[in-house]
């Protein structure tokens, strides 16, 4: 729409022109009105209209003076002059000021509409011409910038004059690089749309000269971005631009240089940062003040035994305890990065580690047989992670899900153990026997039992036996009979156990009868 401002000292004229003319149908819109030249100048700077319709005679500043002031700010501004009477001298001045038309009041609607149509056509032509000129200029700037970035120092110096003539003159220069990549399941069309949206934003905001170089979308900034606040704002803007496209970005800033011939060094630094992005712990826009050795930053303060880390991960899985896994995976990743492993080597390590752990667990837990197939796709996604942080987090998430399967298997085995104890407490039950039946290592099964019940196996068995003994004693059975019934072949041993848990001897407890309720044992 072509923006219009109406300037006249008569309120009726301003209102009449605003309301009576079908501006919208001609692609015009009235953005404001003014009662005199001074007000018009003030509003012009705020509204930036494309067409000013102004009375030629107004108090303080007449229409001709207003035109001269406006022409100083915008030589391409379209102007229509209104006059209450025919005045040849004013008409000549209006023509000299390159007004688009001179209309007598009362304004003839058809005549005004005719002027507006001509102005619209002219404005459209000018707009197209301006777009073409800007496009050619931008293309020329992009070609020169790309040559400056990829050429030798001598070639850059030879291009300096051309660059400055294209408006690339600045006190400081800086390169911004942005890499766009698909989220899982998205296609290349989405990334292409994201690139177009990104370039359009850079051009609309007039942030500098955009360029495409290799896989990078770049920007020669006309105002350097420095400091945390500016980088955070840039990161938020990039996220907003790409919102809804399911496309992620990586961005880096080269260092600030003071000559157009040195922008290649800023570009090289920005490119280096993108290449080592995988090892950068910081999220958002990477910048040149970050450590030169980003891998070294990931090291842990104390010596790390990677074999010990792997064993701890396995035992955590085997015990069905997911809590320590994220930190252990992070420590392993930091160790590999600090010891010079490449991105692909680290990704391969975690894929093989997870595969090996699941296979080893499947041998010990037959119910886990075939579970590796469930996580094949998740393991493959490790290779798509763009940073060490995301990689170790994803690896930990896989193993934490595996523990849920292990936990279900172990829960079933523990339930069998508890049922067996409560049914067979009078037999010579031993942890070793149950471990053999359930296909567990003795010590390992003992740990599982302790984690689940809070008691050691023998302590739990004793408590079950004593509770059953209390019931039998209340029913009037003799002490030696009860001892045999609950699994104690030695009556003296039964006596000591009973007194330890109940606080009194079996014979005294038998005599107490109903008073036994106060001696409940917590199992």
From TrEMBL:
InterPro entries: CheY-like_superfamily, Homeodomain-like_sf, HptR, HTH_AraC, HTH_AraC-typ_CS, Sig_transdc_resp-reg_receiver, Tscrpt_reg_AraC-type_HTH. GO terms for biological process: phosphorelay signal transduction system. Keywords: Cytoplasm, DNA-binding, Phosphoprotein, Transcription, Transcription regulation, Two-component regulatory system. The modification 4-aspartylphosphate is found at residue 55. It is found in: Cytoplasm. Pfam families: HTH_18, Response_reg. Residues 3-120 form the Response regulatory domain. One of its GO terms (molecular function) is DNA-binding transcription factor activity. It comes from Paenibacillus zeisoli. It comes from the Bacteria. Its main location: cytoplasm. Residues 415-512 form the HTH araC/xylS-type domain. Gene3D superfamilies: 3.40.50.2300, Homeodomain-like. This is Response regulator transcription factor. GO terms for cellular component: cytoplasm.
């Amino acid at each position: 729409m072509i923006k219009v401002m109406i300037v006249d000292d008569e309120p009726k004229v301003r209102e009449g022109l605003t309301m009576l003319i079908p501006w919208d149908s001609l692609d015009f819109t009235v953005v404001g009105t003014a009662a005199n030249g001074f007000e018009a100048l003030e509003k012009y700077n705020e509204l930036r209209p494309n067409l000013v319709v102004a009375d030629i005679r107004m108090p303080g500043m007449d229409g001709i003076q207003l035109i001269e002031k406006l022409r100083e700010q915008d030589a391409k501004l379209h102007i229509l002059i209104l006059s209450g009477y025919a005045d040849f001298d004013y008409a000549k001045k209006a023509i000299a000021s390159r007004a688009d038309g001179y209309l007598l009041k009362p304004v003839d609607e058809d005549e005004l509409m005719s002027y507006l149509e001509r102005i619209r056509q002219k404005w459209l032509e000018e707009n197209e011409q301006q777009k073409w000129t800007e496009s050619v200029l931008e293309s020329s700037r992009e070609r020169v910038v790309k040559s400056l970035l990829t050429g030798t120092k001598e070639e850059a110096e030879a291009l300096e004059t051309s660059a400055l003539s294209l408006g690339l003159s600045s006190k400081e220069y800086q390169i911004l690089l942005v890499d766009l990549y698909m989220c899982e399941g998205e296609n290349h069309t989405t990334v292409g749309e994201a690139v177009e949206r990104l370039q359009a934003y850079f051009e609309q905001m007039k942030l500098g000269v955009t360029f495409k170089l290799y896989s990078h979308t770049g920007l020669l900034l006309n105002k350097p971005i420095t400091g945390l606040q500016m980088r955070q704002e840039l990161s938020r803007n990039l996220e907003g631009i790409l919102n809804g496209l399911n496309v992620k970005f990586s961005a880096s800033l080269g260092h600030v240089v003071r000559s157009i011939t040195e922008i290649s060094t800023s570009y090289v630094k920005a490119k280096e940062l993108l290449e080592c992005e995988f090892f950068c712990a910081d999220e958002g826009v990477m910048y040149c003040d970050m450590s030169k050795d980003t891998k070294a930053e990931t090291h842990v303060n104390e010596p790390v035994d990677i074999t010990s880390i792997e064993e701890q991960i396995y035992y955590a899985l085997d015990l069905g305890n997911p809590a320590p896994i994220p930190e252990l995976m992070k420590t392993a990743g930091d160790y590999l990065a600090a010891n010079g492993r490449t991105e692909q080597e680290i990704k391969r390590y975690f894929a093989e580690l997870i595969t090996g752990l699941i296979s080893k667990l499947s041998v010990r837990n037959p119910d886990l047989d075939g579970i590796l197939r469930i996580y094949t796709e998740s393991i493959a996604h490790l290779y798509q992670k763009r940073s060490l942080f995301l990689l170790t987090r994803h690896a930990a998430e896989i193993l934490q899900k595996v523990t849920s399967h292990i936990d279900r298997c172990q829960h079933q085995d523990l339930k069998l153990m508890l049922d067996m104890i409560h049914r067979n407490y009078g037999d010579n039950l031993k942890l070793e026997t149950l471990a053999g039946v359930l296909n567990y290592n003795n010590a390992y099964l003992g740990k599982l039992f302790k984690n689940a019940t809070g008691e050691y196996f023998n302590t739990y068995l004793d408590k079950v036996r004593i509770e059953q003994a209390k019931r039998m004693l209340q029913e009037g059975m003799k002490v030696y009979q009860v001892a045999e019934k609950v699994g104690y072949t030695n009556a003296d041993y039964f006596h000591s156990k009973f007194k330890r848990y109940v606080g009194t001897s079996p014979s005294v407890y038998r005599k107490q009868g109903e008073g036994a309720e106060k001696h409940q044992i917590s199992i």
